[in-house]
Recover the amino acids of this structure.
């Protein structure tokens, strides 16, 4: 092995890297969960209501009911229970751009989840695949940055 000489001068700074996903998410008013930027909006009808500055997509995941509850806790605007109404309202479907939607109350909430992202079914026998359950319905969207 050879003896090391003196350390040379520092080189020029490299090119600036891409903006942090987390910082970009905060900039558009979103919240990060599992590496994905999410934003939410209240539903006034049974249709997508895309939040401002959100280019919606559906992450291909196999998230659980526990993951759904964490997302619901991040975005609910009214007191709500983790108890899901296992009737036929909502369901595990892919007919909207949202990742999930849910009603908000303290009894039992109606839940819609996107089948591309969630692996659990929030309904019992049958499903309506309706995104909106009532005027308290909140939809959550994954936003491409």
């Amino acid at each position: 092995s050879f003896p090391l000489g003196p350390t040379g001068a520092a080189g020029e700074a490299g090119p600036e890297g891409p903006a942090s996903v987390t910082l970009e998410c905060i900039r558009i008013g979103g919240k990060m969960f599992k590496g994905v930027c999410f934003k939410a909006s209240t539903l006034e009808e049974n249709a997508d209501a895309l939040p401002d500055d959100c280019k919606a997509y559906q992450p291909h995941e196999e998230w659980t009911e526990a993951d759904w509850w964490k997302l619901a806790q991040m975005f609910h605007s009214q007191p709500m229970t983790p108890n899901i109404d296992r009737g036929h309202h909502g369901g595990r479907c892919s007919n909207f751009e949202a990742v999930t939607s849910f009603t908000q109350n303290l009894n039992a909430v109606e839940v819609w989840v996107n089948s591309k992202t969630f692996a659990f079914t929030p309904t019992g026998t049958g499903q309506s695949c309706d995104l909106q359950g009532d005027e308290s319905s909140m939809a959550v969207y994954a936003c491409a940055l």
Notes: The beta strands are 31-33, 36-42, 55-57, 90-93, 100-102, 111-114, 138-144. The radius of gyration is 21 Å. The first strand starts at residue 31 and ends at 33.
